[in-house]
């Protein structure tokens, strides 16, 4: 019975990573950035280390790319609200 638990501990993560790889391939992620792929893989339940290994980069690089992408989204949101005020001024 104890051996069954050990086998599950070894193989379930391998199976999970393999399924995540198949999902990423079938989702058409070929043209996406590393940050977009990493976010997708994290959404499937992989941690940063596994996502980085799968993408051929380091965990620190993935964290930085995700941080930069997140800050760009925040700046983009603020920029849009600024555009609305510009439109009001133009009228």
Question: What does this molecule look like?
Answer:
This protein is mainly alpha-helical. It has one domain (2-90). 82% of the residues lie in helices and 0% in strands. It has helices at residues 2-26, 34-43, 48-55, 59-90. Helix 2 packs across helix 3, helix 2 crosses helix 4 (59-90) and helix 3 (48-55) packs across helix 4. The protein is elongated and about 50 Å long. The termini are far apart. The relative contact order is 0.10. The model has no long low-confidence stretch (mean pLDDT 84).
Lay out the secondary structure:
Blueprint: H1 2-26, H2 34-43, H3 48-55, H4 59-90
Helix pairs in contact: 2-3, 2-4, 3-4
Q: Please give the alpha-carbon distance between the first and last residues.
A: 75 Å
Domain count, please report it: 1
Q: What is the ordering of alpha helices and beta strands?
A: HHHH
- Estimate the helix proportion, in percent: over 70%
* Dominant shape: elongated
Briefly summarize what is shown.
Helices cover 82% and strands 0% of the residues.
List keywords for this structure.
single chain; 91 residues; mainly alpha
């Amino acid at each position: 019975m104890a051996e069954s638990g050990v086998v599950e501990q070894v193989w379930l993560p391998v199976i999970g990573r393999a399924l995540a790889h198949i999902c990423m391939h079938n989702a058409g992620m070929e043209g996406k950035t590393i940050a977009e792929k990493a976010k997708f893989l994290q959404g499937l339940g992989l941690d940063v280390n596994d996502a980085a290994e799968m993408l051929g980069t380091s965990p620190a690089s993935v964290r930085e790319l995700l941080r930069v992408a997140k800050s760009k989204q925040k700046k983009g949101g603020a920029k849009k609200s600024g555009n609305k005020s510009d439109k009001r001024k133009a009228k």
